Amino acid sequence: MPEQRDTPGPLAAREEAGAEALMVSATPEETTRSLGSDAWHDLRRNPIFIVSGLLILFLAVIAIHPSLIATRDPLFCELGRSLDGPAPGHWFGFDAQGCDVYTRTVYGARASIAVGVCATLGVALLGAVIGGLAGFYGGIWDSLLSRATDIFFAIPLILGAIVFLSMITLTGIWPVVLVIAVLGWPQIARIARGAVITAKQHDYVQAARALGAGNGRMLLRHILPNAVAPVIVMSTIMLGTFIALEATLSFLGVGLQPPTVSWGADISAASDGMQFRNAPHILLYPAAALSLTVLAFIMMGDAVRDALDPKLR
């Protein structure tokens, strides 16, 4: 008798054909896509990310090389042109000291962005280390580090910065960066602690522990990559907040000191009511630059949050 072979029915044949089509259409990039690649895939299609990214890129360029678009000296002033309005070659007019407002607005981006970036890096590093260790080891370490976090939480950031900067005689951006980093890390620590506690309960971490992986390997290879997303999101949002904080401290006279050019200091100098009524441009331009910068970083933080949070996708 001839040998009989089982032939798939119409339904089975369609299922096999569909599976083969999926295997053919799935590229290696799609099958191995990680959280980071998924986030980047979403960010490239987010208009908020594109607009804020272009604005931040422009601000970064002029912060590094302000002479590209401002050829004058921001410290050169002509008292004879005090409070003059816009003129050819001086698009934003002159301030009370006769300094070119356009040039000072451009150069003000350097100090403000430098303080924001450096302070954010310090806060993120300090907060992630303290919060990560508290969440990973737990027990007495968690209690001690959490109580230390509560103590720093009880100190209002702007009030503590005013007190400490009033006692420091050093000038430049580093005293401001140091004070913000020392006082601003508790929120990042709380977020990092919660993310590490959640990550270490996953099955793959328990499997790595059962296979004999040490604490350092588990923390660096398994927990940290899966707990860093909330820290990145919060740090991006806080960067804009720290830029506004630096401007506030400079406005109050305890932040960046002359000859450092700062938006907050220029806003403070232009806040006199009589000067504003006669020459509103000396306040509007640095205030607008500060507002756009803070808004750009907050928009960037919102876009990154939406991309990195799987619940929002």
Describe this structure as you would to a colleague.
It is a single chain. By secondary structure, the protein is mostly helical. Helix content is 71%, strand content 0%. It contains 14 helices and no strands. The radius of gyration is 27 Å and the shape is elongated.
| Category by helix and strand content | mainly alpha
Main beta sheet strand tally, sense and closure: none
Helix content: over 70%
Q: Whole-number radius of gyration?
A: 27 Å
Oligomer: single chain
Mean pLDDT across all amino acids: 82
Which spans of ≥5 residues are poorly predicted at pLDDT below 50? 1-32
Distance between the termini: 60 Å
Total strands: 0
Defining key terms:
about 325 residues; mainly alpha; 14 helices; about 0% strand; disordered N terminus
Detail the topology: elements first, then pairings:
Layout: H1 10-25, H2 28-31, H3 35-43, H4 47-64, H5 101-137, H6 139-153, H7 157-167, H8 174-184, H9 186-199, H10 203-210, H11 215-251, H12 263-269, H13 273-278, H14 281-308
Helix pairs in contact: 3-14, 4-5, 4-14, 5-6, 5-8, 5-9, 5-11, 5-14, 6-9, 7-8, 9-11, 10-11, 11-12, 11-14, 12-14
